[in-house]
């Protein structure tokens, strides 16, 4: 018998955005626009390894998503800088920005607020 619990939709979406961000880094820096002055492996080490580190916490998907959400702030800043400065890579930067916003948004969507005597549901 399996005791596996289905992940909520926002966590599945967050994991999908995380995986897409890893794939984007590989495609961007190793295939479409490889670096001209430094080795490709070094660029991939800088861009991909930080995204893989939260896999150590994958036993709890919420914790892994939290860590990758924190790390994705760097990728958001990278996307803004590249989108602003490099017209040839702007479309990749926009994809990076969308993925990081989606990833961070899934963290907020997954927060459960307590319902107590003093809480209201309307604004």
Helix-strand topology string: HHHHH
Number of strand segments = 0
Stretches where pLDDT falls below 50 for ≥5 residues? none
General form: elongated
Rg is 17 Å
Measured as a percent range, the helix fraction is 55-70%
Structural class: mainly alpha
Give the number of helices.
Answer: 5
| Mean pLDDT value | 89
Main sheet specs? none
Describe the structure.
The protein is mainly alpha-helical and 123 residues long. It has five helices and no strands. Helix 1 packs antiparallel against helix 2, helix 1 packs across helix 4 and helix 1 runs antiparallel to helix 5. The longest helix has 25 residues. It is elongated and about 60 Å long. The relative contact order is 0.15.
């Amino acid at each position: 018998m399996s005791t596996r619990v289905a992940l909520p939709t926002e966590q599945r979406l967050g994991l999908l955005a995380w995986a897409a961000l890893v794939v984007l880094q590989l495609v961007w820096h190793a295939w479409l626009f490889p670096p001209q002055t430094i080795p490709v492996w070094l660029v991939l080490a800088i861009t991909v390894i930080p995204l893989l580190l939260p896999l150590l916490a994958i036993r709890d998907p919420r914790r892994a998503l939290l860590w990758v959400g924190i790390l994705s702030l760097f990728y958001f800043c990278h996307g803004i800088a590249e989108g602003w400065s490099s017209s040839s890579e702007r479309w990749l930067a926009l994809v990076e920005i969308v993925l990081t916003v989606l990833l961070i948004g899934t963290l907020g969507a997954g927060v459960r607020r307590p319902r107590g005597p003093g809480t209201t549901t309307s604004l």
